[in-house]
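Re: the 258-residue chain
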Amino acid sequence: MNIATGLLIPFLGTTLGSAMVFFMKNKMNKKVEKLLLGFASGVMIAASIWSLLMPSIEMAEEQQKIAWIPAAVGFLLGMAFLLVLDSIIPHLHLNTEKPEGIKAKLKKSTMLVFAVTLHNIPEGMAVGVVLAGAMVGNAGISLAGAVSLAIGIAIQNFPEGAIISMPLKSEGMSKLKAFIYGTLSGIVEPIAAIVTIILTNAIVPILPYLLAFAAGAMIYVVVEELIPEAQEGEHSNIGTIGVAIGFVVMMILDVALG
């Protein structure tokens, strides 16, 4: 039951965020958006440290490896992976001016969903890696800790779901269709997690690297996407406050549950 819960919690975050399109007239309030983006940033930074990098180091020590090598190599590979993705996929920020014309709007909407969907794959893999580590009894990883990571990613997914569905609605798409698109952007997370768990036996030797890889990928999203959006324009201090609150909440969750 806990494994299924860990798999579905992040997807639930995206779904609930996408559902905001039914309650808001046009788009999310800027101050609320900044707070949520900052909060998500703090959550993901803390999750990367306590749920991914620290277990990576502890597992490497248990495997008689030089403790910092898997963490450093995996982290840099995770950053490089999303750097390559961002160089291939056009970089989309939702605060840019809307392109004119139906085709331009459709292209932007499609690329937006595609980009967010791809960014969700490492997050799903992170949950799968931690759940796999808990299942095989690796040191430094507990099932409760894995669930706390899933909760952290779900919190981060909430504004992502809203940030997809709201612009789609403002561009003329029906609320239901915008909700479905936003929700589907998160379906890759449980799928990536399940694939990772299925390959548990094969990944155990490289689990420290994969944990750090997931951390690097998530930190990249935080630095490249979430924080710039939270700091853009006026009231940037709201985003900063959100980071602080998110970091502390996730740290408490991980330490208390882990």
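The chain has ten helices and no strands.
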